[in-house]
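It is worth pausing here to work through a concrete case rather than discussing structure prediction in the abstract. The textbook approach is simple: state the sequence, then state the predicted structure, then interpret. We follow exactly that order.
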Amino acid sequence: MKKDALIVYGAVAQQPATMGSTWEQGKHLLRRLYDRMMHKHLKQYRVDYRNYISKHAYNKGDLAITQASIQSIKNHLPKIVAILKNWGDLEDTSTNEAPLAICGSGYFSPNNQLQFPSRLHRDLAWIRNGRNLLMIYGVGVNLIDPRLEKGEFSLPAEQTGFLSNFLENCEHISVRDATSQRLLQSCTSRSIQLIGDPALFIEASAEISPEERLSADRVHIGINFPFHGPSACSRINEDLRIYVIALKEIQRQTDCLFHYMIHYDSELLVAALLRDAGIKLRVVHGDVDDLLHAYKQLNIHIGGMLHSCILASSTGTPAIGLAYDIKHSGFFRLLGLPEHCIPAQPFEPDRIVSLALHTLKNEQELRSAILCRRLELRNKADGFLRSALQQFNQ
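Step two, the predicted structure:
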């Protein structure tokens, strides 16, 4: 085994180029202008995320997971070389002698027919070809099925068998939430450790610059509404005008400035539509450090993307999660704040306003509790990594 390298395998380990061609940028800009005009004048107009698909777009939460995983690993092995591989790219890996670390995100996520993706079957074949799967670190299961949360859910027999075979290839396995732990543990005799999401332990790589500092004499609230898939697109079309009602009432009562935290480039349209509707907001559109710097200075955050809530929590900022998947409730329960996770649909403006005002009132107490729980989970994650990585010191 190569003792100075580790393959870090993540949903977004190697980020694509951040800028597309001038033509692509111009096309998206013109499309946003068209969608804004149509949305303003036609009440039944529906926007479509597919008009903003780009090979340059990526989920910044997934990139944050990879960056956080590398930070945590290097805390134990400062000289380790991280070989970055995106999901689906293992077969292109020639560095056979380096062990593999599967890091975070919803790696074990079946489709609507409860079938695991072909990618997992290819990964298992690659691993069985003499490779060393060193650890599965802070992964989860994404699935919109309330039975999974209640412990009433089971996979089809052939999928349970596949998952069992997969897990038997790894000695060190950890997950981000209790629901994922229950599902994986039901398929293996190996211990499944619950450590939290790796991105909860991320640290900004640079200090906040003077230009990034927010005014201390105003309330600052982060917001994020997903817009990069069919379900998210439907929620935007059905609920955007109700979002505006809630946000305007919060703004009326607090005179806050909203900060739209862009986690996927297609969300630039959502931010523009909210601004067109009269919401006073600033757009935060940059790299992971830019997001972390903004999150740290917010008073609270209201997020649809789970990792917008996780990155806010990593800085101590209290978050309200708009859950469209079991992963949201799993995170907030682990954090000790289940009441801060509410359904994305039906979207209830009065409930959002009430919870936002209550969270603002108790901001400092919540900050302390979040940072305390983060430290507890980080200690668990460090214990897991210490055990998993000890062979590098032999």
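Step three, interpretation. The CA atoms of residues 96 and 131 lie 6 Å apart. The mean pLDDT is 93.
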